[in-house]
Design goal:
DNA polymerase, domain 1, three-stranded antiparallel beta sheet, 14 helices, 3 strands
């Protein structure tokens, strides 16, 4: 199971923790941020609080831009992944804006800072041959759950969805007649993604041959289930993908993002436009998609059908 990053060892002042609790409630009630994002922001801000204490700050109202800047520099020097530093800055930015709303800060002191996105680089990706090999790796003859695993891997590569989105996918979200999948992404934002015929065939085979043996409960709407018929946690999706990445001997990371990166780069390298790929990936900011490349515009369905290497 994918272990969560450890909490900071030192404890910030109780009043800061109280502000953090109010901020997290604000993120849920007013911003609609997903629980995994809120948990990540909580970890980032606890680390930020520890840093503030280490540099001698005792009152959040006295926070200055250089406090945030020194935190980012410290995080980068510690070897934290650039994507994690970007997220940490996003957490601090939102917290500073919250403190302005609460009249603890008079202005957003994080506003002058440039995003560390300029540190970002194109992730290590695999080509279609390697991705197809990875998707085909689960073997139902060795383990009947290979049917489920192959369907999962196939959907991840065909749609580029996140692990948490796959875990929350319902049977009714897959429209076999039209060839689309409805995905509930970050912040409960819904998007529609075309899905390749082979992926639909893999999902149908899993639904018909394995899923009925996992649960007879008609109220269970989730598509992918555990061996005991329960909802499949996001961490288990990571574990399953890691297993097949290792078995395939692919050296390109060990997470569902291996297939998400492959999905995006294959579309873009074959001529798909950036905006369409941004929409399919569910990126709120096109700058996140720009780590792949720049392309011209066209319609989603035709882009997917024309350019995705799998039919």
């Amino acid at each position: 199971m994918n272990a969560q990053p450890p909490e900071p060892v030192c404890s910030p002042p109780p009043e800061w923790v109280e502000q953090l609790a109010g901020f997290l409630n604000y993120l849920q009630a007013e911003c609609g941020l997903a629980i995994n994002t809120r948990k990540a922001y909580r970890r980032d801000l606890l680390k930020f609080f520890i840093h503030l204490g280490e540099v001698g700050l005792t009152d959040l109202s006295e926070m200055e831009t250089y406090h945030v800047e020194s935190f980012l520099v410290s995080a980068k020097k510690s070897g934290l992944a650039v994507s994690s530093v970007v997220r940490a800055l996003a957490a601090v930015r939102m917290f500073c804006r919250y403190l302005v709303i609460q009249r603890i800060l008079q202005a957003d002191i994080s506003d002058p800072l440039d995003s560390p996105r300029k540190w970002r680089y194109l992730p290590t990706v695999i080509d279609d041959t390697a991705a197809s090999q990875l998707v085909a790796n689960p073997n139902a003859l060795e383990d009947r759950f290979g049917l489920r695993d192959r369907a999962m891997m196939s959907v991840l590569y065909a749609t580029g969805m996140r692990a948490s989105e796959l875990a929350g996918l319902k049977i009714s979200d897959v429209n076999f007649n039209v060839g689309i999948v409805r995905v509930l992404g970050k912040g409960t934002k819904e998007r529609i993604i075309p899905i390749a015929r082979q992926a639909m065939a893999d999902v149908r085979e899993y639904i018909e041959q394995l899923r009925p043996s996992l649960t007879q409960d008609p109220r269970q709407e989730l598509l992918f289930l555990s061996r005991t018929g329960r909802p499949l946690p996001r961490e288990d999706v990571f574990r399953i993908v890691r297993k097949y990445v290792r078995r395939s001997g692919i050296n390109a990371g060990t997470s569902p993002h291996t297939l998400r990166h492959a999905f995006a780069t294959q579309l873009l390298s074959h001529g798909a436009d950036l905006r369409s790929v941004q929409e399919m990936l569910g990126h709120a900011d096109i700058a996140t998609t720009q780590i792949y490349t720049h392309v011209d515009s066209s319609r989603l369905k035709s882009i997917h059908k024309r350019f995705h290497p799998r039919p």
